[in-house]
Amino acid sequence: PLVPQKHRALEENCQNLLAEDKWVLRGGKVVEDSLDEFSKKCLIDHPACSMIIYTEDDTYLNNNVFTKEELREITEETPLSFTTPIPGPLADYMNKFDQNNIANLRAMLIETLAWEKEYNIQRYHDFDWVKLTVFLYVRLYESGELLKEQLETWYDRKIWCLIDSAFDDIPSLQIIRGESESMASKLRKNNKRTIGSVAPILRMKNGRKCDFDVRETKALHEEASEFGVGESGRYSNDTKTLLE
Fold it and tell me: How far apart are CA 181 and CA 188, in angstroms?
């Protein structure tokens, strides 16, 4: 039979967290304590076990971790915002592609602009990336491929390929493709692993594998910081979406 997993790192973090540093909701519920208690009941590694709250996940409601009002308070308390707005000139350029037909889009794409004549990747990379992305999607739309049933790898190659070139102007970042293993996930899962003594050494656990990983550029023998991962699927509301 399945039994709840132990999350010793989470328990230790909660125990070491001072009461004044915890998030107390208006009704008196302590967010960290609620997640800690729920993690002790989890049979699998739910995001709550890593102190992650996805407010659209009904798991919290179904298991009485939080009420609808409490989830609404959590959402409204820390809304996401862009720390750096899109620069005005770039935003204006993007808005020019707000056309209602392909002919107008192609007319925009074939126009040679001043920044293209004196192109510098550090100054004009984002403009170039926008133009390239629109061009790729225009060709994809015209091909009729969007009307056909496709496999997951097709979406990676045809739809989400824009991510692969989004950071070309940042030499210290790279996109790792092909079910890459998250090193951050691997380190977390093995941080309590010790050498063998009275018992043999535990087998190393693998990190979560994703379709791509936004990672710091490092030599293979060095640990690289990770800034995000991505997983694509054929449908928007299936079991895989919930798990990822």
Answer: 13
